[in-house]
């Protein structure tokens, strides 16, 4: 599998393939031509007496100094070395690979002025499986993800460290072992390698990919809870949803209805049930999940625009001009990264409320307290809900926006920043926590449904429970719960539970 990086945008699917699946990359002939054309402009500018930011001047608040030709190679090296100032835990390899691919995509646009060999060095590192060590802290989300991207550029220069298929090695040593030569950066190239929003964008693309699956899984979890709590599927009817024509709401309701189709449990109380309405966490699931879907759609639109962008400063324009601007500011990404954290927290919050209903004998329609085998001796799923509640509380904290903050930098030259990297990092945590919260609901709902025997679930929910039972035992006395929760989480994260259910939907 090879991803061709051309002058246009890379697709979200290609980002996932390179980041997670190790897909190879190559530059298109058109991209090489565009890169060479913009490089010629930079070399012409470098030879002139006119100061050009990033070519013959310093950077940021030091841009007033003219740099003599004999110092310009050192200027680029110094830029990368000084900006590779990240600290804290390592950023995940998939994020680093995504941001390297996206930086390569901008280089391929022909608007940055780098040499072809510099762009090819990024492709070669990705193809060799060498991942620069990037750290959690260092980006303000403005002037690009400077520190994270600088650590990558440092590795291309043969400095710093990389992970080579699980082994941490000096970058120069690792490059040599794959027959790759370090790059000696020329005018403008250091700036072009670090002045981008690629870390923020990479994390947004990966989160969108994961959340599409998780929102489908949230529908599955809610359907299982409706079934196990003897709720009604009548509220999922298409004509009811059409009264409020939000597309995500209609999609979630239709999905949940299909997951509950043919359920003997639901059919068993369709007539003669004295309850007039289910609780909100059951009845309003399509509205909440649907609003999350619509938020996701908006964020995907922003990501698509950013994937088509060429983020650098200054930029080489098609008519040969080189102009400074503010396209590196991370606000468009920061806002949607923050926005997504809100519905993620709310979907998880509703999931926890459904779990709690299963455990309360006054609300669970005849099931034992805490779904315990011998209540009092056994605690059942009591503490699983505690774990879920702790994660939901954390999700609410993570829903507070990062993008409303700004700390001036570079002697007040960079006096407003986006904090988009921080927004992206907390969204990644939120996605992981939502995965775990939904897994606990499914784990609990499966036990509740099993306890409805001899009534049986529908084909779709039944298939999900059957797969879960290959990893986790059914109702019985208390046992070590943590391994069960991890097994359920992995089935949710991999998409296997969702796939098992959806195979039964006609």
TrEMBL record:
Its main location: cytoplasm. Contains an active site 4-methylidene-imidazol-5-one (MIO), which is formed autocatalytically by cyclization and dehydration of residues Cys-Ser-Gly. Its EC number is 4.3.1.3. It holds the Pfam family Lyase_aromatic. Pathway: Amino-acid degradation; L-histidine degradation into L-glutamate; N-formimidoyl-L-glutamate from L-histidine: step 1/3. One of its GO terms (molecular function) is histidine ammonia-lyase activity. This is Histidine ammonia-lyase. It comes from Aeromicrobium panaciterrae.
């Amino acid at each position: 599998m090879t991803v061709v990086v051309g002058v246009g945008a890379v697709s979200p699917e290609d980002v996932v393939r390179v980041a997670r699946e190790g897909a190879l990359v190559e530059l298109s002939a058109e991209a090489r031509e565009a890169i060479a054309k913009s490089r010629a402009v930079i070399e012409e500018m470098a030879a002139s007496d006119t100061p050009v930011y990033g070519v013959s001047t310093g950077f940021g608040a030091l841009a007033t100094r003219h740099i003599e030709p004999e110092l310009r190679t050192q200027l680029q090296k110094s830029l990368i070395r000084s900006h590779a100032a990240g600290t804290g835990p390592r950023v995940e390899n998939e994020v680093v690979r995504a941001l390297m691919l996206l930086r390569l995509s901008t280089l391929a646009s022909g608007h940055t002025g780098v040499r072809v060999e510099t762009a090819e060095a990024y492709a070669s590192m990705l193809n060799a499986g060498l991942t620069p060590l990037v750290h959690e802290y260092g980006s303000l989300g403005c002037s690009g993800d400077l520190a994270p991207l600088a650590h990558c550029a440092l590795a291309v220069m043969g400095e710093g460290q990389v992970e080579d298929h699980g082994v941490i090695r000096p970058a120069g040593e690792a490059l040599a072992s794959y027959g790759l030569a370090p790059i000696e950066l020329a005018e403008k190239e250091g700036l072009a390698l670090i002045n981008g929003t690629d870390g923020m964008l990479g994390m947004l693309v990966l989160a969108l990919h994961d959340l599409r699956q998780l929102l489908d899984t949230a529908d599955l979890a809610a359907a299982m809870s409706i079934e196990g709590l003897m709720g009604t599927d009548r509220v999922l009817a298409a004509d009811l949803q059409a009264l409020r024509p939000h597309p995500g709401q209609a999609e979630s309701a239709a999905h949940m209805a299909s997951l509950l189709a043919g359920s003997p449990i639901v059919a068993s109380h369709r007539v003669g049930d004295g309850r007039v309405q289910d609780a909100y966490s059951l009845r309003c699931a399509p509205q909440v999940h649907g609003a999350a879907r619509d938020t996701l759609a908006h964020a995907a639109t922003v990501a698509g625009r950013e994937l088509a962008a060429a983020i650098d400063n200054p930029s080489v324009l098609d008519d040969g001009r080189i102009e400074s601007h503010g396209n590196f500011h991370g606000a468009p990404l920061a806002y949607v990264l923050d926005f997504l954290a809100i519905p993620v927290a709310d979907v998880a919050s509703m999931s926890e409320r459904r779990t709690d209903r299963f455990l309360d004998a006054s609300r669970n329609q005849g099931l034992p307290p805490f779904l315990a085998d011998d209540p009092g001796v056994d605690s059942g799923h009591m503490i699983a809900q505690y774990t879920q509640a702790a994660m939901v509380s954390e999700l609410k904290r993570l829903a507070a926006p990062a993008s409303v903050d700004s700390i001036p930098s570079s002697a007040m030259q960079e006096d407003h920043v986006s904090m988009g990297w921080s927004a992206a990092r907390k969204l990644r945590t939120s996605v992981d926590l939502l995965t775990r919260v939904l897994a606990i609901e499914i784990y609990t709902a499966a036990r509740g449904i099993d306890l409805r025997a001899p009534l049986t679930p529908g084909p779709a929910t039944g298939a999900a429970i059957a797969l879960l039972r290959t990893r986790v035992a059914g109702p019985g006395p208390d046992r070590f719960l943590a391994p069960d929760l991890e097994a359920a989480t992995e089935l949710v994260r991999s998409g296997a539970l969702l796939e098992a259910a959806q195979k039964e939907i006609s």
